[in-house]
Amino acid sequence: MKLVRFGEAGAERPGMIDDDGIIRDLSAIVADIDGSTISPSQLKKLYNLNSQDLPLVPPGTRLGPPVNGVGKIICVGLNYHEHAEESHMAVPDEPILFTKATSSINGPFDPVVLPRGASKGDWEVEMVAVIGKRASYVEVEDAMDHIAGFCLGNDISERAFQLEGTGQWLKGKSCDTFAPIGPWLVTLDELPDPGSLDIWLEMDGHRYQDSNTGLMMFGVAEIVSFISRFMSLMPGDLVFTGTPPGVGMGQNPPVWLKPGAVLRCGVTGLGEQRQNVIDWPG
Fold first, then answer.
1. CA–CA separation, 1 vs 189, rounded Å?
2. Looking at the domain 69-279, which fold is it?
3. SS3 content of the chain, % helix, strand, coil (to 5)
4. Core-most of 41, 126, 206, 276, by most CB within 10 Å?
5. What pTM was estimated for this model as a whole?
6. What's the distance, CA 89 to chain centroid?
7. How do residues 49-88 score in pLDDT, each as one tens digit?
8. Residue 86: predicted pLDDT
9. DSSP-assigned beta bridge partners for residue 56
10. What is the DSSP string of 53-107?
């Protein structure tokens, strides 16, 4: 099942994609796609719907972030061996965790806005796990039971904010529009093996990232279990699972995001995103 949120920014409505790839309106069934509607019991109700009975959404309607009311975004850094190498950082012995502000969440086709003072904007395509059931001290073998599904994400970064001066990954990762997610939340029934998905990103038609989630050093279940040792993951929380090699910082010479650039990225089964890069207005 593919769940979406459609409509103008800030006024999105819940929907689902039917077998013909058409958006259907779920507004009469659920108020939103959020932590309260993606629990195992609530998803069962949606599975039993006949999508043909739901109202059609007009073609071309904007798609927003597929999950609302996100409590926190936890990210895993350096989860692909070659990305650690291109970043000139040590290969970690355990998952490296950092956060992004929830105010950075953006729609899958909305512009990416470079903040004031940006000089080293970068990209990071990722597979994102969406938590569906509270996870606290979860064993690896039980971790997948706490995931509602997955979506595509792009961990946009401003490397100067992240690594120069006082550094701090949080401020280099959390600018407005720096977490495009979607277009869909894909539930586990449609994505039984998240550990074998092609993952890629292009800028201006050039493919910079081209890999497979099977090359992650720490798999999804291990990541969720690890995070749950230090905090409770709650329904609606997002877990960015890491990016493969090919980021702008890793090029020789480095390649940075500039106004006018166009980003496209995708993960098998999770759809594709497209973002125009623009300057901060004014």
1. 7
2. Fumarylacetoacetate hydrolase; domain 2 (3.90.850)
3. 20, 30, 50
4. 126
5. 0.97
6. 23
7. 999 999 999 999 999 999 999 999 999 999 998 888 888 8
8. 86
9. 24
10. GSPBPPTTPPB--S--S---EEEEES-BHHHHHHTT-PPPSS-EEEEE-GGGEE-
Establish how many alpha carbons lie within 13 A of residue 273's alpha carbon, considering only the half-sphere containing its beta carbon.
40
Single-letter amino acid, residue 191:
L
Phi, psi of 259 (to 5 degrees): -55, 135
The H or E element containing residue 160 is helix 159-163
User: Could you give phi then psi for residue 143, rounded to 5 degrees?
Assistant: -65, -40
Q: Tokens at residue 144, please?
A: 């997948």
Q: Is 72 exposed, middle or buried (0-12, 13-18, 19+ CB in 10 A)?
A: middle
Q: Extract the tokens encoding 2.
A: 């593919």
SS3 2: strand
According to DSSP, the residues that pair with 129 across neighbouring strands are 150, 239
Output b/e per residue, 102-127; b: 16+ Cβ within 10 A.
eebbbbbbbebbbbeebebbbbbbbb
For residue 240, the one-letter residue type is F
Q: How far apart are CA 250 and CA 123, in angstroms?
A: 11
For the cut 80, the answer to whether the pLDDT of residue 280 exceeds it is yes
Helices and strands in the chain, H and E counts: 5, 18
Terminal-to-terminal C-alpha distance of the chain:
41
Specify the pLDDT at position 192. Answer: 84
Distance CA 169, CA 87 (A): 13
